[in-house]
Structure formats: C-alpha cells, structure tokens
Amino acid sequence: xxxxxxxxxxxxxxxxxxxxxxxxxxxxxxxxxxxxxxxxxxxxxxxxxxxxxxxxxxxxxxxxxxxxxxxxxxxxxxxxxxxxxxxxxxxxxxxxxxxxxxxxxxxxxxxxxxxxxxxxxxxxxxxxxxxxxxxxxxxxxxxxxxxxxxxxxxxxxxxxxxxxxxxxxxxxxxxxxxxxxxxxxxxxxxxxxxxxxxxxxxxxxxxxxxxxxxxxxxxxxxxxxxxxxxxxxxxxxxxxxxxxxxxxxxxxxx
Length: 254
Hints:
By secondary structure, the protein is α+β, with helices and mostly antiparallel strands. Helices cover 33% and strands 24% of the residues. It is built from 9 helices and 11 strands. The strands form 2 sheets. Strands 1, 2, 3, 4, 5, 6, 7, 8 and 11 form a 9-stranded mixed sheet that branches. Helix 5 (149-165) crosses helix 8 (216-223). The protein starts with 5 loop residues before the first helix and ends in a 5-residue tail after the last helix.
C-alpha cells in the first residue's frame, strides 16, 4: 500500500492532530466521515465502544473498531467489529450481529458495499472473516472465497457428504467456491436436512418449519458437518469475488 492514497493521507493528518492516536468515541469518530458512512446501517445508530482506536504506523493507519448497533430508542440490538491496517492492505471483519427481524432487508448488502468502497479508497487488497451460522451463506453470496486450499478441501468434502446423505446423485466437483453452492438449482425441506445430518443441527442453526423448503446450496452451507469457514474477498476489480459481489449486491466500486 502506498501513502499516495489521498484518503490515507487525510486520515494520517487527522490522527496526527491527536498525537498519532485517536480514540474513537461516539463523538470523535465523526472526524472520519468516510468511516461513519461505511459502518452505519440503515435505521440504526453505530455507537463506538471502549477499545476503538485509530493509530499512525509510520506512513500507514491501523484501527480497531468495535461498536454497538442501537435502535431509535438507543437500545443495543447488534454489534459490529472491524480491524484494518493499510500497511498490509487488508481488513478483517471480526463480527457483525443483527437480530433476525433486522436481517433480509438489504442492510447486509448495503453494509458490504459501503465497506468495500471505503477499502478501495484506502488502497486495500483484501478482506478476511470467519463465515459461521447465517453468515456461512450470506458471505458466500457476497463473493468471499475459501481462505486457503485446506479450508476449501475440508468444507467441500463435508458438503459432499451431506449432499449424498440427502439422496442426491453425482458430485459437487464443479462447485469450487462458496457461491457456486448457492447456484445449485435444487431445494430440500428442513426436515430432510435435519434427518440427513449425522449430528443433527439444532433448530436455531436452520430456522423454519419442518416442511419449509430451502435452497440446497443454503442447506449445504448452513448444515454440512463442517459448517463455518474462513473466507477472504479479493478486492482486485475483476477478481471472481468482486464479480460475484457485483452480481449479488449490485456494488462495483473502482
């Protein structure tokens, strides 16, 4: 990453005004409007918590950002945790929690698009996370790929096992990336998934009525014996992940 990135220099100037280290509070983080825009979710107030800080590291900036997501009454209903270091051109999405009634309305899509726009302006090259629970299929749709060959091999082997237990013939050989699983044109009932998985997923892992149908790819991502995976989004403009993100969320960036 080069310090020539204009936004990096702007942030360095702001941090320098505070002696090279700025504690991010509900008041002070507004000195970084691009950060506010990237980490604000529709209808919720992002309230930075103790431990949120941005620092100068030579000609780079690094931050740890932890915040409550609060409803209009000021009550915490979720949380967000992000790390970033322009010296290594990488961001880490540690956590994003939202209650079920605030999911599925476009907040997730808008959030990742806003974050990617910020990361590109900072000259970042990638974003990493752990995709667990509902995030296992949400982040797959957003273009996050398996972080390494071992993760890919282990997860797809487990998905293949569940695929077979569900009674499907053939293999998943053509599905090499998480979002490939979401493109499988088949559905199954929740009851089938629960019965097929050897260790029996809890209802909270795959919510719904027993006879409700879900996409097979979603079932494989949520309920395979190896559910959860470490993922990375390659921010190169024409990378497969960026192409998938544009297809799913409609955000392109430069």
